[in-house]
Amino acid sequence: MTNASDWQGTVGRSWASEWRRTDVSFSDLTPKLLAAIAREPGAAVADIGCGAGELSIAIAEARPQAQVTGVDISADLVDAAGSRAIQPNLTFELADASQWQPASRPDLYVSRHGVMFFSDPQAAFAHLAAQAMPGARMVFSCFRKAAENDWAAAIAALLPKGDSPPASPTAPGPFAFALPEHVRRCMAGWRAVEFAPVDFRYIAGTGPDAVGEAMALFGRIGPAAAALRTLPEAERAAVEMRLAELVEAHHRDGVVAFNAAAWLVSATSDHNDG
Ligand SMILES: C[S@@+](CC[C@H](N)C(=O)[O-])C[C@H]1O[C@@H](n2cnc3c(N)ncnc32)[C@H](O)[C@@H]1O
């Protein structure tokens, strides 16, 4: 489980310091998401859970006439996004999207894996619909099941089994939106909800030190990171060794990559002002 306060604390700080690597990790997914967004109208675009802003920046570049706003709950990530963006039609705002009051009403919401962390997703999606133009569109990506995402399943398998009972599969977190029927229930205020499966390569590392890059990524981001932060020294060393073996096994031609599986979800706001 990963919730709002995790993003406002350690997890957000890790993503803010690792944004170059997290952008690389999504680099096979991002063009597919951008292609889906390109078919959508939108003059006021809001990127929900924008993180360090790569998607917002790409949309602001592609749509110079549009006003693009990236919204995120992590101050570290909003700072990281602001430090790399120069487009005049792009702003970043620090806010909980479930309570965000936009200056101008979006007609298109987008998100790259930023909408699965709401503690009350139905209230959050209803709020987003109410803030938007009538008939606004939404397009976002989210992971399918952990079992379909080799990087997550393989890393989880090499971690020590904890004593705590497993969290609910729909608890806020990276895999909370794996099940379409659950997503439909969460998307209060939205209709015509459609799911397109997208398989992509999760790029953990590239370049002359691809293995080192992947180890650095997994040391700060994802399921191994929390364990490496909290385990006693001996267990931590054992996890690091197994992680290094896993990464080596996925290293080919200067790239460490894992199979990953996502949904591209699109919907239309059901809200009207009357
Ligand atoms: C998996 S990261 C994705 C970040 C970014 N979209 C990307 O693709 O790099 C999830 C993002 O959602 C943000 N987030 C989580 N809950 C949020 C909320 N209630 N309101 C706004 N942002 C939120 C986190 O701070 C984080 O930046």
CATH fold label: Rossmann fold
The 3D shape can be described as globular
CATH superfamily: Vaccinia Virus protein VP39
Count of discrete alpha- or pi-helical segments spanning 4 or more residues: 12
The CATH architecture designation is 3-Layer(aba) Sandwich
Strand composition percent: 15-25%
Distance between the termini: 38 Å
**Which ranges are low-confidence, i.e. pLDDT below 50, for 5 or more consecutive residues?**
none
Mean pLDDT: 95
Report the sheet with the most strands, covering strand number, pairing sense and barrel closure.
8 strands, mixed
Return the structural class: alpha/beta
Task: Fill in the keyword field for this structure.
Methyltransferase, Rossmann fold, methyltransferase activity, 40% helix, alpha/beta, eight-stranded mixed beta sheet, binds S-adenosylmethionine
What this model shows, in words?
The chain is an alpha/beta fold and 274 residues long. The chain has a single domain (4-149, 159-203, 261-269), classed as Vaccinia Virus protein VP39 (Rossmann fold, 3-Layer(aba) Sandwich). Helix content is 40%, strand content 23%. It has 12 helices and 8 strands. Strands 1, 2, 3, 4, 5, 6, 7 and 8 form an 8-stranded mixed β-sheet that branches. Helix 10 (210-220) packs across helix 12 and helix 11 (223-230) runs antiparallel to helix 12. S-adenosylmethionine (SAM) is lined by residues 4, 7, 12, 15, 22, 26, 49-52, 54, 71-74, 77, 96-98, 112-114, 117-118. S-adenosylmethionine (SAM) binds next to helix 1, helix 2 and strand 2. This is Methyltransferase. GO terms for molecular function: methyltransferase activity.
